[in-house]
Specification:
Helix 23 links the parallel strand 14 and strand 15. The protein contains 27 helices and 19 strands. The strands form 3 sheets. A 7-stranded mixed β-sheet has the order 7-6-8-9-11-10-16, sandwiched between helices. It has 3 domains: 259 residues, Rossmann fold (3-Layer(aba) Sandwich); 155 residues, 3-Layer(aba) Sandwich (Rossmann fold); 129 residues, Rossmann fold. The protein is of the alpha/beta class. Helix 5 packs across helix 13, helix 15 packs across helix 22 and helix 18 runs parallel beside helix 20. The structure holds thiamine diphosphate, 1-deoxy-D-xylulose-5-phosphate and magnesium ion.
Amino acid sequence: MSAWLGIDSLAMKPADATATPDLIGKIKELADFKRLPVEALPDLADQIRAFLVSKVSRTGGHIGPNLGVVELTMAIHRIFDSPTDRVIFDTGHQSYVHKVLTGRGDGFDQLRKRDGLTGYPSQAESEHDFVENSHASTALSYADGLAKAHVLRGEKRHVVAVVGDGALTGGMCWEALNNIAARKDLPLVIVVNDNGRSYAPTIGGLASHLSSLRLNPSYEKMLDSVREALGRTPVVGPPLFEAMHAVKRGIKDAVAPQVMFEDLGLKYVGPVDGHDIDALMSALEKAKNFGGPVIVHAITKKGNGYQPAEDDVDDCLHSPSSAFDPETGKTLAKSAKKWTGVFADELVKVAEERDDVVGITAAMAIPTGIDKLAHRFPERVFDVGIAEQHAATSAAGLALGGLHPVAAIYSTFLNRAFDQVLLDVAMHKLGVTFVLDRAGITGPDGPSHYGIWDMAVFRVIPGIRIAAPRDEATLREEFRECLDVNDGPTIVRFPTGAVAADLPAIERFDGVDVLAHGNRRDVLLVACGAFATNAMAAAELLTEQGFGVTVVDPRFVAPVPAALLPMAAEHRYVVTLEDGVRTGGFGDALAKELRDAGIDRPLRDLGVTPGWHPHGSRAELLADLDLTPEAVAEAIRDLAGRGSRQPEQPELPLAPKQAAAKPEKTEAKTVAKPVKAAKEPA
Ligand SMILES: Cc1ncc(C[n+]2csc(CCOP(=O)(O)OP(=O)(O)O)c2C)c(N)n1
Ligand SMILES: CC(=O)[C@@H](O)[C@H](O)COP(=O)(O)O
Ligand SMILES: [Mg+2]
């Protein structure tokens, strides 16, 4: 990108960190960085790049986005005075450089690891961190409120909000800009980090407008004439910046008819080479002194200076989830069959059979697998940008138009579209299928990424059906069942990572799969989705201790399958197990159904306690949450009075006279002896 100025890119020279003083090691706090002489900054930028590649290649993480904001973050912290001035990062995945400059370099060996540095800003980690939410497009709203508070309290401090071009495709950003533009007194600097990409190239009119400002050939020609006019090798900084400013004004008026931000009444500075520290500091200084809200439009390159990221056409190494080879950028983990891949494969199969099936993604085609459909049927996939609310209602429009949309969105990101699913889809009885990947505890991305809310939040929607497949076969089957529903929303939810080992059913009653029978009817263990694996392992432990455990998979967790009621009535205890919050979750819903049916059984609902659970690996978090097979078995022993606490075993009330009629037996599609339960893949 620095070629934009004809200045050799600040691409990472073979920075031998030993050749020059280890500047990063000297930065124990932000003041240490601010004390560095300005001529040391290019060296520091190189060292930070080499440092990040070295560390993140071992831990996994957002290497691409962070290599794109090295100079940008340095310039911000040189011109502004955190934490008096508040620096906010939209999405926060690009805050590693900020963490290095605020004295946390030592923590990168434990990046995204349990009890280690988080991959996002964290108030517990630093006074320089404010917004912890990893959901995109929130920073400008935070900044709007924060700046208004500063004004109202008479505090002389700036708010600096760093927002990516991808995040700018989110509606909240425009709601915030509409408010910010109305206040000429807000000491607010919005730094648009424009690298032209979310994961893939950023879509939409906004993106093409941004790039027109950046890549217009006349712009380049005019810049060449400016460079000649200066008669020297391009020198960045104030003289060139001023000259360019005049040029840009001329060009913008000529070639960029509708200058988006200034038309909003916002002061616009840029575009600035986002890898030229001097130009950036000059632009930020200008913005700081402006006094009101200003947009500084920085042009950056995702993965800048690290060839494997720059060359990665998919997503510039946006977020390798685990360790990768620093030489090649290739992840080292052996590739197991993932839930995402199974979904993508079945989606393409269905789309070949049904031409009404179309796909929607919110700027995450590859992470959700929708890209497979796009390769096969490019005209039947719509990338709406980071705009999940729009995705849901646009899907409603597609359904109104006679299509059956499949909106593939990470569970946590659909939270923000609850109203759209409720009213725009469900109230209109439209067949839209939402496929929620990363449902349940994910791990390294921490609490705002945990897909633990969907079963509780969306189950309240009248007419909705929520499927939680337990393995590949049921994912394929339940996904197709959802596609056959055309009078309301359906959800298919599955966790991150490797797909669970097949768990064939012994029999199926009214849609509920029986996975294991005990020799007695002590416990009905109802396991949702991938937790069937944990449930089978727990059942084995309990069987060895003399319990009779029946393990069933409801397949659809909303509405609660009626067949579960008579099954519960035939057992002494009922236990539910779900990879979601307990409050309002599946267990709660089943307990209510049992109460309403007069079936009084001790019930234990095992799941995620609502809260902000820290980051770590999925396995570590599940252990912390007592959701491992051993913990499940212990909880059941405890319920049945034979746990480690050994309370008396209560006499059970008889099953009610009017026990619900025994559901008729239907042939389970996959009938076989239960397999020995495998441990859930990590
Ligand atoms: C609401 C929401 N949807 C999706 C995501 C997943 N996501 C994380 S980063 C990213 C791309 C962000 O692009 P941009 O804002 O341009 O930042 P860059 O990575 O280019 O620095 C996406 C889609 C998210 N964090 N939040
Ligand atoms: C920042 C963000 O929201 C995404 O990049 C997310 O971190 C990806 O998660 P996965 O690694 O599970 O795809
Ligand atoms: Mg971007």
